[in-house]
Write a structure and sequence with these properties.
Blueprint lengths: L6 H7 L2 H13 L2 E2 H8 L3 H14 L2 E6 L9 E5 L5 E7 L3 E8 L4 E8 L6 H17 L7 E8 L2 E3 L4 E5 L4 E4 L1 H9 L3 E5 H12 L8 E6 L3 E7 L2 E2 L30 H5 L1 H13 L6 H4 L8 H9 L3 H25 L3 E5 L7 H14 L2 H6 L1 E4 L6 H15 L8
Parallel strand pairs: 4-7, 7-11, 12-15, 15-16
Antiparallel strand pairs: 1-3, 2-3, 4-5, 5-6, 8-9, 9-10, 12-13, 13-14
Amino acid sequence: MQHSMPVGSFQWMKSLNKSTILNVIRTQGPVSRAEIAKQTKLTPPTVTNIVGELLESQLVVESALGESTGGRKPIMLRINASAYHVIGVYAGAKKIRTVTATLDGKVQQQAERSLPSEPSPEQFLKHLQQAVQQVIDATPAGQPFLGIGVGMHGLVDPERGVSVFAPNLNLHDVPIKQVLEAHFHLPVEVENDVRALALAESWFGQGQGIADFICVNVGTGVGAGIIINHALYHGPSFTAGEMGHTTIDVNGPRCSCGNYGCLEALAAGPALVKRAQSAIRFGKPSLLEQMTDSLDDLTGDLIYQAAEQGDALAVEVLADTGRYLGIGIANLINTLNPTSIIISGGVAGAGDFVLRPLQETVRTRALRIPAQAVHITRSHLGKYGIAIGAFTLLLQRLFTPSGVGEV
């Protein structure tokens, strides 16, 4: 294929010494060979040999001359960000969002498509292939791709690249990595969607330079991506961060997981819509009745619009959502003591209607010292944030294979 890079070439690129040198050039370039040797503690001949290979591969280019320290001016090196592209895919419960980007994370193409409800594994994989092909076709010919990253909702085994269970699509054991690699002849990395988002925040968002933070995504479901000492935390069963299935109210509604009173059943998008629908059906007045022909068509976005117009019911529904989330986040703060909590997803788009009651709940329910230490903020990465995180999986493998890496 015109746009492919053999899997073996990617393995060559991310050998440890190459990755170490590439990461120094990425974070500090333009930088000289001598400075690279000093920082990496590799010998000058080793640096010279590896830099020669990187120049040949066009991953690195020579730029302007540096300042002289007494001899000849050194030749400076920088990453050739446009030499290769990466593809990031968010496979959500309702949509697939796809982007391409250069090696410095600058998005070039983006696309979105809807998924059918409860597709078969074959249908889902076909949609995934078509979504990737769409952004490949939109990229000028002759620009090679380094690989594909997929942020998949639900339980994911990143080592095998398998979607173990996607609850909102009712899919089990889908071999995403195997199928996409066979179809596109490109290396593929697969990760849980919220962990991918946390990686995006660490490299390009609100988590840059922060060693310990948690990204909480609130949309159709609720999940957390946990960064500890600059590295993603998975847990031995790859289920770390499933905060949506922690119990908030033992007498609460039934959750999709079968438990009762889960955070997801109380605070996710479908839950706040159900609360609004129920209140209106029990006779509470609301602008929402005039904003839609049928209560069955009610959405979280309409509730937010009504709240902006001062609708008391909409304001209260969003505030309840914030309070439920505050309880869940207070539990996270007491357990993990992060420096920062980054809120993302559709529900977080309601802004202060959700965030103010959330923060007040954290103040009253979390232990005082960790609650004072944590900074709660909203993500700025937008609706393609998870897709950005998905291609960041590839950048991590290339530049910092041992972890997230400080940016």
